[in-house]
């Protein structure tokens, strides 16, 4: 055996960690992606875990996965298939091998492939590799459990705690395989387990043991790999999930607007991490309340908005159903409010840990009466920061509730994020009542240009007023049942939203002469962009128009969509965005690509479907 393995340079690689829900695969994947982001790699992650609180150990339904795409440049998707698969038990190998490339390296814990384990995973023979058609030469078979026990024999930890360190051994092998510096891992673990230093040091010891195992045995692989960063932009980077980016965006918007931030929320998968993150930042003037239900979460935020705070409420699709009456109150009162909907699989409880785009029409129309509301859709984990910041700016400057649509894929997934300079963020100027209105203020006097009413904070002498759910006279602010006034107010509220300025729709790829325009919105951007680039590499003329702003639509939407002979709208629902565009754009008749699987698009499937449309 050669003393030193060849170190090959790669542009990108996909790694998938998998095991029981209690095996710490999410943590191992997060650490590996954080280390990669810290050194400047582009990353895109996909946590894929079951809805069971804790499925039976070793069962097929209890497998938890974490896939990360590491790239020298930008990583647009977590990847269709992985180059390295870590399978901590037989069930993980059985269920996750379908996500591996034919030539993938597979790392397994042989101690979790005993007769009982194989039976739980429904293998029919002891030759599990042969049964699945896996080449043994591609398998790094390591007795991880026993080696971790030996490594921590003198630690004083109980057996249960020792076994929880198995994920760190696997992480150590992967870090060796990709020449990752363990100093970053060490720092991460000491920070994470700051209150349990003994546990931190044991995990660090196990990571090094895994790294040394790979180094000393060469782990049955022909080479190790490096993924250097290209086009580095100077700055501080971190690996950030969409939910954390959303929380940071709200904090930044409140700081920029000179307001306190209030979040009224109720725990719901997959949005709860926004509440958890914001609760850590009381020093930034953040107020968080975990309310007794979804309705009170939204209603308390409306009260905070009336009192002068930047108010937000976070939830998922089922919570939007419950909040709809309170959201309508914000519409008729014309109060600034950011409503964050982290979409998941439905209907009803549905697939609570999976991702869809099925709340679009609910966000647009799911309230009684004429209830216009701006809707923005975040396109990536890092874009969650920019999108929620834009939502807060619109809410405060135009006095309206705004819906931000993310989804489980971008909310739980992560990307490398360059920390912004708050001085470079767009200014936010809340639409306050003017000094000239003192003594003559009424709540529905409007800015003649934007149609926005003026925001008066309670307690200001000369600006006394009443808001409520009953229709008000547009001039006096008094309760009114006059039919002409109601018609007028409905039109004014709609016109105000229509006038909100949003960026023009951009077309990427072969914008001038594409044979096919791909259209999408929200969290499918990375997959649609990758499909476009793959098709262009194959010689096709293809372009992409991806929507960040849903209501109001960009002013040039009709012009862009009418420019191409063939347009396909691709979305993770049964055609909601396509139907909305047909309603808003005359004579728009697109092709459609629709999936509702609770899983991200597969780029290869997109390419096949879009190529068929071109060839037809």
Describe this structure in words.
GO terms for molecular function: oxidoreductase activity, acting on the aldehyde or oxo group of donors. Keywords: Oxidoreductase. This is MFS transporter. Residues 264-441 form the Pyruvate flavodoxin/ferredoxin oxidoreductase pyrimidine binding domain. It comes from Xylanibacter rarus. The protein is an alpha/beta fold. Helices cover 37% and strands 20% of the residues. The protein contains 21 helices and 22 strands. Strand 5 (82-87), helix 2 and strand 6 (100-109) form a beta-alpha-beta unit. Helix 8 packs antiparallel against helix 9, helix 10 (242-257) packs across helix 11 (272-278) and helix 10 packs parallel to helix 15. The chain starts with 5 loop residues before the first strand and ends with a helix.
Jot down its keywords.
616 residues; alpha/beta; 7-stranded mixed sheet; 21 helices; 20% strand; oxidoreductase activity, acting on the aldehyde or oxo group of donors; Pyrv_Fd/Flavodoxin_OxRdtase_N; MFS transporter
């Amino acid at each position: 055996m050669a003393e030193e393995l060849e170190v090959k340079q790669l542009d990108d690689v996909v790694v998938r960690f998998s095991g029981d829900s209690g095996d710490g695969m999410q943590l191992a994947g997060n650490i590996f992606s954080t280390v990669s982001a810290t050194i400047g790699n582009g990353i895109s992650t996909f946590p894929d875990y079951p809805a069971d609180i804790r499925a039976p150990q070793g069962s097929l339904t209890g497998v938890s996965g974490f896939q990360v795409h590491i790239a020298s440049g930008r990583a647009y998707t977590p990847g269709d298939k992985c180059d390295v698969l870590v399978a901590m038990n037989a069930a993980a190998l059985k269920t996750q091998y379908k996500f591996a490339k034919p030539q993938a390296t597979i790392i397994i814990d042989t101690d979790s492939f005993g007769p009982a384990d194989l039976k739980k995973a429904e293998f029919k023979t002891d030759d599990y590799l042969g049964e699945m058609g896996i080449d043994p030469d591609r398998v790094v078979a390591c007795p991880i459990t026993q080696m971790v026990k030996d490594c921590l024999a003198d630690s004083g930890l109980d057996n249960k705690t020792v076994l929880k360190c198995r994920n760190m051994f696997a992480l150590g092998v992967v870090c060796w395989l990709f020449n990752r510096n363990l100093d970053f891992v060490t720092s991460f673990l000491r920070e994470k387990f700051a209150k349990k230093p003994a546990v931190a040091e044991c995990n660090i010891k196990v990571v090094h043991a895994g790294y040394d195992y790979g180094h000393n045995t060469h782990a049955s692989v022909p080479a190790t790999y490096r993924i250097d960063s290209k086009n580095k932009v100077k700055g501080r980077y971190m690996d950030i999930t969409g939910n954390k980016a959303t929380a940071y965006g709200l904090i930044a918007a409140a700081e920029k607007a000179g307001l306190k931030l209030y979040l009224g929320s109720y725990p719901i998968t997959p949005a709860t991490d926004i509440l958890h993150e914001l609760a850590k930042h009381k020093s930034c003037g953040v107020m968080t309340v975990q309310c007794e239900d979804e309705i009170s979460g939204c209603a308390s935020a409306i009260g905070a908005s009336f009192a002068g705070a930047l108010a937000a409420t976070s939830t998922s699709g089922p919570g939007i159903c419950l909040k709809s009456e309170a959201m309508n109150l914000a519409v008729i009162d014309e109060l600034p409010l950011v409503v964050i909907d982290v979409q998941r699989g439905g209907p009803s409880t549905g697939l609570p840990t999976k991702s869809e785009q099925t709340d679009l029409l609910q966000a647009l129309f799911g309230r009684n009466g004429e209830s216009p509301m701006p809707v923005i859709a975040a396109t990536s984990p890092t874009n969650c920061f920019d999108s929620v910041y834009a939502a807060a700016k619109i809410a405060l400057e135009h006095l309206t509730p705004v819906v931000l649509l993310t989804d489980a894929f971008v909310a739980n997934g992560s990307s490398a994020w360059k920390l912004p300079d708050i001085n470079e963020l767009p200014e936010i100027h809340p639409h306050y009542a003017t000094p000239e209105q003192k003594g003559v203020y009424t709540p529905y006097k409007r800015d003649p240009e934007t149609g926005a009413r003026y925001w008066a904070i309670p307690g200001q002498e000369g600006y006394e007023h009443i808001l409520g759910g009953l229709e008000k006279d547009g001039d006096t602010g008094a309760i009114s049942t006059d039919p002409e006034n109601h018609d007028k107010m409905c039109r004014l509220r709609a016109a105000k939203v229509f006038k909100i300025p949003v960026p023009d729709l951009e077309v990427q790829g072969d914008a001038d002469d594409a044979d096919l325009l791909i259209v999408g919105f929200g969290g499918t951007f990375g997959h649609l962009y990758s499909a476009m680039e793959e098709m262009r590499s194959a010689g096709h003329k293809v372009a992409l128009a991806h929507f960040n702003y849903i209501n109001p639509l960009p002013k040039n939407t009709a012009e862009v969509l009418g420019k191409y002979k063939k347009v396909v709208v691709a979305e993770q629902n049964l055609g909601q965005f396509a139907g909305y565009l047909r309603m808003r754009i005359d004579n728009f008749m697109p092709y459609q690509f629709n999936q509702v699987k609770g899983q991200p698009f597969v780029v290869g499937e997109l390419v096949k479907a879009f190529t068929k449309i071109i060839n037809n």
